[in-house]
Amino acid sequence: MSIVVQKYGGSSVADAAGIKRVAQRIVATRKKGHDVVVVVSAMGDTTDELRDLAQQVTPIPPPRELDMLLTAGERISMALVAMAINQLGYQARSFTGSQAGVITDSAHGRAKIIDITPGRIEQAIQAGDIAIVAGFQGVSQDTKDVTTLGRGASDTTAVALAAALGAEVCEIYSDVDGVFTADPRIVPKARKLDRVSTEEMLEMAANGAKILHLRCVEYGRRHNMPIHVRSTFSQKEGTWIVPEQQGAAMEDAIISGVAHDKSQAKITVVGVPDKVGEAARIFETLATSAVNLDMVVQNVSAAATGRTDISFTLPREDGQTAVTALAALQEQVGFDKLLYDDQIGKVSLIGAGMKSHPGITAKFFASLAAAGVNLEMISTSEIRISVVIDETQIEDAVRAAHTAFDLDDNDPDGGAVVYAGTGR
Ligand code: ASP
Ligand code: MG
């Protein structure tokens, strides 16, 4: 029998009714003759609630204990899903990430999977049971402590497990019908894509689209695991993440979507002396503090002063760390000051077709200008153009670009449906 791995997100298992609905769906897949392995997220906003609770106890929770706490969310949903399946007359057994053989490094809060040894899952399958696995967690190879893989990482658990088990497909279930041309919560006329190439999906995930965890897309590509993104709440065919050549480009679309990201901040190092090695010194310091940079822009230095400004974006949660690390460097480097701005957002236009079509950048910028959006930073890849703008203008910018590139679904019956809609 072929193995199907199904991952259900927090909005799909938000309450008892959701858990029962998911159980029905799992059993239906089983009845079609597949072995089913399920990965679950925590119920609704549980992960955020647990994090808030920790904050109330201490401003800086020890990372080991925070992981211990957060992994409890997925343990609740896995046990309840297993119970609901048993209630339907099928055998199900739940497993923590550790029991499922998800072996990670020891970086609490952002652990990487280094191996999967799913012996117990294989035994469960052989015994005819449906295995339910807690997403987003594993166990450190060195310390044997429980780890988490980063927010939204249940997707990655699912794809990694699917690859290790040699599954036929990894299905990612959420509260929308698939991958859309923009976030349907902002653009109700967004269209569902039938297929997206892995390279486009990587850009979307890396630039704020939350429908799939970035590392799950990378994992899927490396292991050639077909990923099907679809809704728990409907029977519709969702979006298939496919190898490069078979993507949307084949359907003749130049642009496959507009992504946005509200989780970033911007730092400007003002008045950096224009000397060899200064940029290296600044970015080495950031690297040592494990700050993940995104866009980096350096202006030409002003002839009068021999100084220049360096700006970069980074995750807001790394903001304090980065500012502290750089402030300690001020005297050595001799820059004037640091500016920190977290009222920014990033909007990205993504499409493999832009490789071969000129004029995309001009059209994108013109649509933003018409919407009154001022551009603070610009960066591009072969298949993406991103701009950093004021946070308050993100939604306008996304809608303007979406319309300009004819992505709106104007069919009265078309457009996106958000079936559940939790997630802060
Ligand atoms: N529950 C975790 C989170 O909220 C993992 C996940 O949902 O994928 O980030
Ligand atoms: Mg998710």
Automatic annotation (TrEMBL):
Superkingdom assignment: Bacteria
Residues binding ATP: 7-10, 185
ACT domain mapped to chain residues: 267-352
GO CC, one annotated term: cytosol
Enzymatic reactions: L-aspartate + ATP = 4-phospho-L-aspartate + ADP
GO-annotated molecular function: aspartate kinase activity; ATP binding
Broadest EC class assigned to this enzyme: transferase
Keywords noted in UniProt: Amino-acid biosynthesis, ATP-binding, Diaminopimelate biosynthesis, Kinase, Lysine biosynthesis, Nucleotide-binding, Transferase
Residues the record lists as binding substrate: 47, 74
Pathway(s) per entry: Amino-acid biosynthesis; L-methionine biosynthesis via de novo pathway; L-homoserine from L-aspartate: step 1/3; Amino-acid biosynthesis; L-lysine biosynthesis via DAP pathway; (S)-tetrahydrodipicolinate from L-aspartate: step 1/4; Amino-acid biosynthesis; L-threonine biosynthesis; L-threonine from L-aspartate: step 1/5
EC numbers: 2.7.2.4
Cited function: Catalyzes the phosphorylation of the beta-carboxyl group of aspartic acid with ATP to yield 4-phospho-L-aspartate, which is involved in the branched biosynthetic pathway leading to the biosynthesis of amino acids lysine, threonine, isoleucine and methionine.
NCBIfam families: asp_kinases (TIGR00657), PRK06635.1-1 (NF005153), PRK06635.1-2 (NF005154), PRK06635.1-4 (NF005155)
Family in the record: Belongs to the aspartokinase family.
Name of the molecule in the record: Aspartokinase
